């Protein structure tokens, strides 16, 4: 009967589209990405945390030579941090289903703040502080820029930490589904 066939056909079409969706969405979410993404994210977080802690400890406990060594080392650390962050973001988007919702969308919303903080505050202030430390000038401007850098660094540590926490929740959910 055509009248009874029509809803049946549309429900079959609907079901087959739904059956395809998880298959299509699972493209690009293979084991390499699932390993690379958290590893790169953890490297990025640990690198910023190391910058922050070594700055605080050298300022509080270390000699002037220790402060200079830390300030001169941090720009080299960007050679690890920047590719690690870029890899984290690229692999994160590769694993994201469109449209993103919930925890993934919260993770994506944090990234512009992390990026802007890094490009506009952390990199310029680290380069400025390294140049000043190299000249042996630790004046009021140095202290102010150092305070700004530590604040921006702390914000990025918290935001990256939240992304890691949400990522681990997503990973646990996926493991529970499998
Ligand atoms: C634009 C930024 C990001 C996006 C779009 C994103 C997206 C995702 C997605 C979709 C997953 C779930 C993968 C799955 O299990 O199927 C995930 C997992 C994860 N993410 Fe991210 N992420 C981003 C940034 C970050 C950052 C910055 C970190 C760390 C600092 C991070 C750490 C993790 C971790 C640890 C997991 C769990 C992996 C597992 O246990 O399987 N993510 N992310």
> How many helix segments?
5
Poorly predicted sequence stretches spanning 5 or more consecutive residues: 1-26
Percentage of residues in strands: under 5%
**CATH class division:** Mainly Alpha
Number of DSSP-assigned strands: 0
CA radius of gyration is 23 Å
Shape: elongated
Mean pLDDT: 87
Please bin the fraction of helical residues.
over 70%
Named at the architecture level, the CATH assignment is: Up-down Bundle
User: Helix-strand pattern, N to C?
Assistant: HHHHH
| CATH fold naming | Four Helix Bundle (Hemerythrin (Met), subunit A)
- Report, as a whole number of angstroms, the end-to-end distance: 41 Å
Bound chemical compounds:
protoporphyrin IX containing FE
Description:
This protein is 89% helix and 0% strand. With 178 residues, the chain is mostly helical. The longest helix has 38 residues, at 140-177. Residues 1-26 have low confidence and may be disordered. Bound molecules: protoporphyrin IX containing FE. The site of protoporphyrin IX containing FE has 25 residues, from helix 2, helix 3, helix 4 and helix 5.
Pick out its properties.
single chain; 178 residues; mainly alpha; Four Helix Bundle (Hemerythrin (Met), subunit A); disordered N terminus; binds protoporphyrin IX containing FE; transmembrane; membrane; Transmembrane protein
List the helices and strands and how they pair.
Elements: H1 2-25, H2 31-60, H3 64-95, H4 102-135, H5 140-177
Helix pairs in contact: 2-3, 2-5, 3-4, 4-5
Bound molecules: protoporphyrin IX containing FE.
